[in-house]
Amino acid sequence: MMFRPWLPAVAILFLTATMCFAAKKDKETMPPPPPMPQAQTVAMYRGRSVEIPLRAIGRSPGQLRFLIRTQPKHGKLGPVQILDRKNAVVTYIHDEKSSVTSDSFTFAVQGPDSPVSAPGVISLTISEEPPAFSVVREVEFGTVILGNTRSEEVVLQNVGGGVLTGRITVPPPWRIAGTDMYRLGRKEEQKVRVVFAPVDDEEFTGQLRFSHDIKTYVTLTGTGFSPLAFDPAKELVFTGSSDASRRTATVTLLNRTDAVRSVDLEYPDRISGPEQLLIKPREDATLTLQIAPTFLGAIDSAIIFESEGYRVSLPAKASAVKPILSATPAAALSFGDVASGDHKELDLELTNSGGSPARLRVTPPRELVISPDPATAVIPAGESRKFTAALELSKPGVFEDALTIDYGGATPLTLPVTAEARANTQTPQPGVIAIPEGTSPPKQETPVAALSFDPPEPAGNKIPPITQLTHLRADTHEIEVGWKIPAKNAISYVIEWRQIGIPPRDGPPTIKWNEWRGVQTREENGSIIARFPNLKDGQVWYIRIRTVDELGKKSASSPTFVISTKVDKSMGLFGWLAILAGIGGAIAAVVFWRKHRLAEDEAESSRLAALENK
What we know:
Elements: H1 7-29, E1 36-37, E2 40-45, E3 49-57, E4 65-70, E5 75-77, E6 81-84, E7 87-94, E8 102-110, E9 120-127, E10 133-134, E11 138-145, E12 150-158, E13 164-169, E14 174-177, E15 181-184, E16 189-196, E17 203-210, E18 213-225, E19 228-231, E20 236-237, E21 248-255, E22 261-266, E23 271-272, E24 276-279, E25 284-291, E26 299-307, E27 310-318, E28 325-328, E29 333-339, E30 343-352, E31 358-359, E32 361-363, E33 368-371, E34 378-379, E35 384-392, E36 397-406, E37 413-422, E38 470-474, E39 479-484, E40 492-501, E41 510-515, E42 520-524, E43 527-532, E44 540-548, E45 561-564, H2 572-613
Parallel strand pairs: 2-9, 11-18, 20-27, 29-37
Antiparallel strand pairs: 1-3, 3-7, 4-8, 5-7, 6-7, 8-9, 10-12, 12-16, 13-15, 13-17, 14-16, 17-18, 19-21, 21-25, 22-24, 22-26, 23-25, 26-27, 28-30, 30-35, 31-34, 32-36, 33-35, 36-37, 38-39, 39-43, 40-41, 40-44, 42-43, 44-45
């Protein structure tokens, strides 16, 4: 057989052609692989919706299809929206009733002429969103007549999740009707009723605040409108007239509304006036009020006006009527005939018929002595005090003067004082007893215990009389004594010294007590220390003490006490002059003796010198 060299080449070409045809046939029958879906995890809030992108990985010659393979269990999906050739988006809406914290669904991708891909998982993490508080910014209550109220409802909302709790606060004149606490769960709301109750005629602005957030508040505005206007507006003052017992005040009421107003009035004790008024719209009415004529004291109270829920308290004040002082005798203190050098007494009664205490400041003539001393007297309203007026004239003739009493009233009380002084043929006796220490009293002085005509003064108050006196110190010109404070309401003390007069015809001695002025007192450890300065040495005084209370009333007088100063036993000026003269004489004698000795020594020396010269 003949070998042909071209046969292998033909066989190779045939084999190659066969293989190429087979490869082209396989390529036309096998589809391309699909792109792969991209899995992802998405976080969201409960009850909300979220757009989730759907993406594919891989090449694709055309538009991809996105297919939902499994639906979520706790929400729902919207339709798939194609964004471009390889991207799409789907909306997931969570069911807020579900309390689970996760959900998922799957999707697949398919390319042109390619099979559907394996599913990709979209995982959702669901969390509770934070609370979100929502409330209006402002509430307007408008104009409200005083005595009425207006309420508005405020809605509190939690538009988020979680729980909001706290307390609501409002300033006056607003208040919360019902509970002031709030608790708002997820998507919950609570209605709060706020009441506006103005008490003044003005515009009000306030803030409704919440304790869970100090930066959040609701502005509250409103206007109060007074239905009545008063003149005077702040205080009603009662004034007096020429008749001290008549004290009145007037007040005008204006009805500011468009309706008839009925006004009821409520008065304190001792003030009278109409009990009810009817005031026409936009008109006024004037009232005259009066204090009871029998009451003269001070008033600090209020009058109540009430009209349809509107209530006003108008302060009412009145000062006490000034003291009104009268005297008995009222015309004059007429002493008639008085012997010169003697004294005569008259009873004087002062009565205060005013409404305030009368504090006496008396300016008597020099010849007149009022006992007890009215300088410390206070006569309460409606009371009287009795005094003794003693007139002592030194020269004969007609005496005319006046007693002036200033007591805090409208005008001082002035009483003429008259007398006819006649000559006294009797020799006047000493008036003040001052006994030098260490000597016996003069014959005309009666021992204290035997002075039956020296009765104690009657008590004007309930303070017990002082019974014991302690001598603390006695010098030649000063004495200190002390006594226990007799009562808590002891205000001051009156110290009196005794003056004894001897009447003519050997009659019984007369006693007059005069106030000792200039005594210095101080309180130490529950006792009163009295210091009597500027006294004469070697003298004796008879004193008694009375206690004055807060009303100026005096207690019964103490027993009569005796105080005395020491005798000044110093040598005085002449004694010192005598001593100085004696000392001077002694010095002069020594000088004279020394000169005499010196002369004698010189004479003896001269004699001896002469003898030696011989």
